[in-house]
Amino acid sequence: MSDSKFVEQIVNKSYKYGFSTDIENERLPVGLNQQTIFLLSQKKEEPEFMYDMRLKAFQVWQTLKEPNWAALEFPSKDNQKIK
């Protein structure tokens, strides 16, 4: 049996020890945009200046390109698919 199949079997087994912990969580839509930044800032109860700083940083980040100065080869990532 391959390692990945073994790990998959263990991960998909029911938990047999009887206790669980319910953790409150919220899910936001996939991707990063102004609305997501606003929701995160609201959730953290941040002051307006912090939201403005985050939004400005996001706008700068959108203009950046991945560096290509190193002799590395790796696939590009799509930041709008990240949760």
Description of the structure:
With 83 residues, this protein is mainly alpha-helical. It starts with a helix and ends in a 20-residue tail after the last helix. The protein has a domain of 34 residues. It is built from three helices and no strands. The longest helix has 16 residues.
For the secondary structure, the number of strands is 0
Beta-strand portion reads: under 5%
DSSP helix fraction? 40-55%
Distance between the ends: 33 Å
SSE pattern: HHH
Q: Tell me the radius of gyration.
A: 20 Å
Contiguous low-pLDDT stretches (5 residues minimum) are none
Largest sheet: none
Structural class category = mainly alpha
Number of helices: 3
Mean pLDDT, nearest integer? 88
Please tell me what the overall shape is. flat
How would you briefly describe this protein structure?
The chain is mainly α and 83 residues long.
